[in-house]
Amino acid sequence: xxxMAWTLPTAAFFGTIAALLVIFTVLAIKYPETPRLGVxxxxxxxGDRLFITLLGSGFINLIWLATMGAPLWGALALCLAYAFxxxxxx
Length: 90
Prior knowledge:
By secondary structure, this protein is mainly α. 69% of the residues lie in helices and 4% in strands. The protein has helices spanning 8-30, 46-67, 73-89, and strands at residues 36-37, 43-44. Helix 2 runs antiparallel to helix 3.
């Protein structure tokens, strides 16, 4: 399995995604949600907003790599700001 890059950052990435899915599942069970109408003018739930955040963050990182290269600390800051905006206004 030499082709796999299982480094600590890779494990942290997938661990974070798994933890987010578990946390959002527990939140959905403990605190049932009602969809809300945000700035995009369609109803979204917490899970929808998480998906939008993860998808957008992937694109932010790809654009950062294409234009600035590594390291990705600036992209991480942009992703966190983007996630805050999505969960607040979408």
